[in-house]
Each structure stands twice: as C-alpha cells, then as structure tokens.
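Escalated from tier 1: (2R)-2,3-dihydroxypropanoic acid holo job.
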Amino acid sequence: MTQQVYITRAVPDLVSSMLQQALPGLRIEANRHDRNLTAAELLQHATGANGLICTLADPIDRSLLQALAPKLKVVATYAVGVNNIDLVAARELGICVTNTPGVLTDATAEIAVGLILACARRMVEGDRLTRHDGFTGWAPLFHRGHGVFGKTLGIVGAGRIGKRVAQAMLHGFGCRVLYTSRAPHPDWDNELAATHLELEDLLAQSDFVSLHCPLTPQTRHLLDARRIALMKPSAILVNTARGPVIDEAALVKALTQGVIAAAGLDVYEDEPRLAPGLTALPNVVLLPHIGSATLETRNEMGRMCAQAVIDVLQGRRPRHALT
Ligand code: DGY
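Tier 2 regenerated the structure:
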C-alpha cells in the first residue's frame, strides 16, 4: 500500500527529494498555506499518514497520536526541543519520535551571544535612535551601556547550546562562567573553569544570565518574579530556550521597574503573541524565534527529519529516536 508522509510547514526542497529517492511511490503532502495549523487541521491533514514531520508549534498530544495510530509510525520534529510532544503517549502507542540535536548548537549559541552583546551595548535602541534623528553628535554621557569583557556569565542548563555559549563568552570575552544544572559537569569545570552553583546563587552573581534548559513542568516559570528579583540591577537576561521558562508578565514588570537592566528574547510564552507591555520597553531586544534559522542549519535539520522518516519506514531505528 502507498505510504504517506505529512509535513506541517514548508521545508527545504531537499526533504522531499530525500524522501522520494529513498521511498519511491511515497505520497508526500505539505501544508500549502505555510502557517501554523490548528489542532483540528493537524488531525485532518495528518490522518492516514505513516510519517509526520512537524515543528515545535504543533501540539502533538495524546489525543492526536491516538487518532493517528496505528498507521502513524514516526513523528520527526524539526527541532531539538520536544516539549510540544507527548513522548509517553508516543512510546505507549509504538510511535517513534525523533528530534534534531547537535546541528543547531552553533546557530542558537550565536543568537544568544548576539543578544547579550545587543542588550549590553544597547545596539537595537541605538539603531532605532539613529534612524529617527536621535543621533545629534558624540557626547560623553550619550547612550552608555555595559561592557562585556571580563564579566560573569550564568548559564542555566548545561547542555550543548549552553556549553557553546559559555565557550564563546569565555574565549571571546574572557567571561567567568557560572552554571546551574541538576549535577555538576566535570567537563565544564575542567574545560571552562566554570563553577557549578544553585540557581539562586547564580542569579545573584551573574552579569548575564542565559537560559538553555528544556521546557518541562519543573522549568515552567523557573524565572519568576522572586527569582528575577535576585538578579543584579545591572543584569541582562537572555532566553533562546523556550518562552515559558520565564514568567513573561513578571519580566515586563521587572524591566519596567528597573529590577534588571535588560532582556534579550528569542522565544516567548505564547508564541507568536507577546506579553502586554513588552514591545513598549526600550530595554528589550526581541527576535522572532530564529535561534536555528541559518540556511545551513535548517537544511541539516531537514535532512535529519527526512532520514528519520526513511529509517522508520524502511524498518530501521533512527539515530535520534527518543521513543
Ligand atoms: C528547537 O530546535 O527547539 C529550536 O527552538 C528551533 O529553532
């Protein structure tokens, strides 16, 4: 019988080419409108599929998986984060879930470092001001930010991306590295001369705090009003992980009241919506979830998704199987 794959957003052409070459006769359907689908649309379009290539915006919950099983054999998400997928249900239903670890480490770290620099040196604010006749000439007190070299960086979540940011900030800017994770990582201590701390201590000591933990029930609102208040008034908070790790309303309040100096965000609590008040703040840099958005990385992520679908539909266990 003809096998089918449904792809929930437009993806690089190489994905279809790989699938077609490896699985001749495969029927590939993709979301022609290239917008996020509602749960009902997702169910409607994915029904009958043996493979599903989805994104972090698709709610792959138990009810969807139950409705698509037993035909559905594999869900390959175009992401490393899997907080939108019910892995327990997938495992119970015998559906293989895969993600794309590793290939987006550098790209995401670039955005985290960029946000630190942009916030510390008030670059976006400066750009806006320059475009709108606010640059009236050099002056000693004009548009001062905070320096970056030699400052203390706190990394929350000691995975690949957090480590890459720590390396870049240590070797590029001589930053002292603090990190928090469930257990100390000897490689961080040895390679980065990093210090493992409890979250509260890290927040109190860091000039820049960069979030790199997955979104789980334990990390939802990890940075709430109480914890944000532990940070230095000059501190900068950067989030390239998942929006709900920060209580966004509490962050808006903290930034408004000068509890911390600035925030650089690539992810939001209720994407693509932003918390009320966020866009009016001068001391935030807001990016549209582009951590992995380089041509190279998005191609590589596509290749990994296609390979995972091919592997499962040809009876092999894919390299990055999570269930
Ligand atoms: C991921 O892979 O989880 C990223 O957020 C997508 O860029």
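Residues 56, 79-81, 104, 291-292 surround (2R)-2,3-dihydroxypropanoic acid (CB under 6 Å).
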